[in-house]
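Um, can you check?
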Amino acid sequence: MDYLTQIYEHVVQQRPLSQDQALWLLEQAELLELAELATLVRQRYHTGRYVTFHIDTNPNYTNICETACKFCAFYRTAKQADAYWLSVEQVLEKIQQAVEAGARTVLLQGGHNPQIPFDYYLALITETKKRFPQVQPHFFSAAEICVFAKQFDLSITEILTAFYEAGQRTLPGGGAEILSERVRRKIAPLKATTEQWLQIHEIAHGIGFKTTATMMYGHVETSVEIVEHLLKLRDLQARTGGFYAFIPWSYKPAGNRLGKTVTQGVSEAMYLRIISLSRLVLDNFPHIQASWFSEGRKTGQLALEFGADDFGGTLLEEQVLRGSNDLAFMTVEEVLHCIHDAGYIPVQRDTLYQTLAIYETPNYFKNRILSPYSELIN
């Protein structure tokens, strides 16, 4: 019996993959065979030809940041001319615009700005819930929360409890990058450690939050570190059950310090390999999200055949990848069109994957005119 057949039987029996098996799949398996295996796990969770998406936005409340990650083209020092810190009202104006466009999720993150008081963060949550009860505030990554704890001399539990009591119920999975201290020392030495990132999500799950998890690959990590990242997430999920989706994306080298030494992006094939491997290793995660926004619409469509079940959001506003000249835009109609063209039925969801609408046929199109940004889409 060859190694692939052994792994196939392992997957069919719903047994967790070992590190050696995952590493072999990442480095040696044929891409289409990997896709076939990942589809088995996808179908375990999601029968039929349904693919979810949501209408969301990702504004930033400040670009002032002391952490200065080497891969980031977004952050500014407080003295730079284009540095900013939005007031609560300015953030709410952005949320209002997104709500008028149909958004149900607001992913709000920002730089690590020592000028901002704790009451500001609480006000963002309470005012969002008060003014826009249909919106899920999906605010503040683990990296931000780690900074809050140090800045305000509060425990992680105290901070997360305050956010929960203010009305927040989910946390974004940003700031994970690669969960390896060797990697983090090279690309983000001032950021939350691997242990801190995992601990914050574990505490959040214990309080009652549901969270996502992410991975940014394609820079200085090794294949072993990619696999270890996934295994750490799987182990935490086995303990808490608090993760509801995983979203990987590739590093963008333009416009940041790391890009001076890591100059080449990764291939579409590698992204599809990562999607399939994620679906196989993270067999206790309900959802794997295709990142059309970071990888391009065609790659996003392909990812649906490699284990992903979700097409992500419309991202009505986004500034971080824009800083690396990685621009992609789609209207809601274009997202629906992409999902249908890939052979699937679009299902609009909320943050926690509750169904809002099902688009069985493509008759919602009044025309096939693309958005003004279509020429920017890969």
In short: Residues 3-376 form a domain with the TIM Barrel fold (CATH 3.20.20.70).
